[in-house]
Amino acid sequence: MSEQPEKPTAPDPAAVRDAVTRQAVLDALFDEVKKARDAARRDASDLLERQYKAGGATKTDATLPDGTKVGSISRQGGERAAQITDAEAFRAWVRDTYPSEHIVEIVPAKVVTTVRPAFSAKVLDEATAVGVARYVDPETAEIHILPGVEILPSRAASHRLTYTRGSKAQPTSGRELVAAAWRSGALAAHVLPALAPAEPTAPPAEDDDTTA
């Protein structure tokens, strides 16, 4: 006779409620924090770009309300690269200048002409390196202005936040300083007003019933 598998033991209901409550609370808090963080990033990015365009500043310190530095934000410059903006003009140039790099393929009902991908990549890489839509023939040293190619932004500028690290002079890291300031209540109203504790209300004044 085979043994019946043991019935799983039910967890403590209090432990289940505690785990579910923690999830519910943290999910609600996370939603508020994420909305505030996203808004802060948009505001900071806009202001930092305006500051950079006005004066060229690329770095700004992050400080607590008392002036303590906890980190800094640095501007990471965007990148530009050569890109084909007129495929037909570029293909025609390759056909007339480097016919061996020009491919003619016959498929049912039509003829397809293209440029060898390796050659396109080589030309674009060189143009990207010099920052100008041109190609220098490695054998003749002839300079070709590339038709149908432009130097365009390939990656937008961004901003990178770094926190201060602990040192002998200041053993507490930037992240730890932020956490301590939050625990002290110095940041709630400034950064997350939705989660700031309510201001204590004064008890109502008692009537003075004494008589002269």
Features:
two-stranded antiparallel ribbon; three-stranded antiparallel sheet; 39% helix; alpha+beta
General description of the model:
The protein has two domains: 20-78 and 170-193, no CATH class; 79-155, no CATH class. Helices cover 39% and strands 24% of the residues. It has helices spanning 13-55, 87-97, 117-130, 174-184, 188-191, and strands at 59-63, 69-76, 79-84, 102-107, 110-115, 134-136, 143-145, 149-155, 158-163. The strands form four sheets. It has a three-stranded antiparallel β-sheet. It has a two-stranded antiparallel sheet with strand order 3-8. A hairpin with a 2-residue loop joins strand 4 (102-107) and strand 5 (110-115).
Strand content: 15-25%
Question: How many DSSP-defined strands?
Answer: 9
Number of contiguous helices? 5
Spatial separation of the terminal alpha carbons: 96 Å
Strand order of the largest sheet: 1-2-9
Low-confidence stretches: none
Work out the helicity level. 25-40%
Mean of residue pLDDT?
88
Helix/strand/pairing category: alpha+beta
Number of domains: 2
Summary, kept brief:
The protein is of the alpha+beta class. It contains 5 helices and 9 strands; from the N terminus they run H-E-E-E-H-E-E-H-E-E-E-E-H-H.
List the helices and strands and how they pair.
Elements: H1 13-55, E1 59-63, E2 69-76, E3 79-84, H2 87-97, E4 102-107, E5 110-115, H3 117-130, E6 134-136, E7 143-145, E8 149-155, E9 158-163, H4 174-184, H5 188-191
Antiparallel strand pairs: 1-2, 2-9, 3-8, 4-5, 6-7
